[in-house]
Structures are given as structure tokens and as C-alpha cells.
Amino acid sequence: MPVLVHVGVFSVARISALFGLVLGLVWGILLSVFAIASASVMPGISAAGGPSTWLGILVILIAAILGALGGFIWGAVMAFLYNLFAGRVGGVEVHLI
Length: 97
Prior knowledge:
The protein is mostly helical. The chain contains 2 helices and 2 strands. It has one domain (3-93). The chain has helices at 9-40, 51-89; strands at 3-4, 92-93.
């Protein structure tokens, strides 16, 4: 079987950033829905078009950006460590068709 002994650090970081972006969007949407729902039951706060709506959108954007940034950094670190370890103990066996 072929053995994967080296991965491109930047290419893994880019893919990890995309995964982080998607997960950040999911978490941001969930958090904003809960924030808007909780604000709508508070007396004197309007959920539709008010500050809570803009806060929900801001939460989604921040979560997506931080998710992508964190995914990029985590992917780069993991790819670097993989290359370091695979060079010493061997890589991952891959079955290709």
C-alpha cells in the first residue's frame, strides 16, 4: 500500500479553514437564533428589526470569521506536526483504487 509521508501545510490549512468557516456559520446561526429568541421574550425588546437582529447577524459573521481563522491555524499546525511525525515513525497507509 502507498504511504502518505508528506502533506502540504498550506493546502491542509486552506481546507481546514473552509471546514472552520462552515462550522462557524452553523454555530453562529444557532447562537443568533437563541439570542434573538431570548431577546424576544424580554419585555420592552423588539426582536424584529431591532438591535437584537443586528446582533444576531454580527454573531454569525464573527463566528464564521473566527471559525475560518481558527481552522486555518489548526490545519497548518496539524499538517506541520504530521510531516514531522511521519518522517520519524512512518506515514499513514492509503488504499487507492
